[in-house]
Amino acid sequence: MVESEPGTGRLAARPQVCAALVAAGVAVRHGRAGHHGFYLNREGLALRAELMRAAEQRTPEPQGPAEPTEPAAGGFVADDGSGAVPASPRRAAEVAAAWEGLLQIRSVLGAGAAEVPAPWERERAVHAVALALEAAGVPPARPDSPGYQVAPSQDPALPRITWTSPSQAPQALARIASLLPSSGWQPTLHRTRTATPYLLASPRRA
To answer: Is there a contact between 30 and 71 (Cβ–Cβ < 8 Å)?
Structure first.
């Protein structure tokens, strides 16, 4: 992650590493065919600063990196069940790559431990929890089939997880609650005033 130009965020890592960072949503591919490169996006620049602080264990001198060139294509987006992410035959492979990249980020920031969400995940909790559910094989909601939906709750740090089929919700949410802890998130069950169940997910502590 730190193998990047200070000003532009252009990555100098191996193609496999760059692809994993794109899949994790912290870098983008930009440029024309044959002349493209990989650049850190805003989240990647923030993560780079965290990695440098963790490595040096001291306050670094201000570097004031410039914003990277606007990318031609965005990074990976986790499916929160809202319908914004279309189904794709390559989706399973993209999710697996994104999850592997995220575990690598956790391992670096957590001194080898990958069980606890990184600070970057806590700031994008809906994205992080949705990715954890996709990686665990839980289906997101679709117009023609039930599934999970992840959305912000009144507390931005606690994403709200619902199931779109009321009759299936108790069993489906119970399964989700059993899967999330191994992905770094602690779920708690709640109910609305009309007794509709939902989960709130909080990041596990070390």
So the answer is: yes
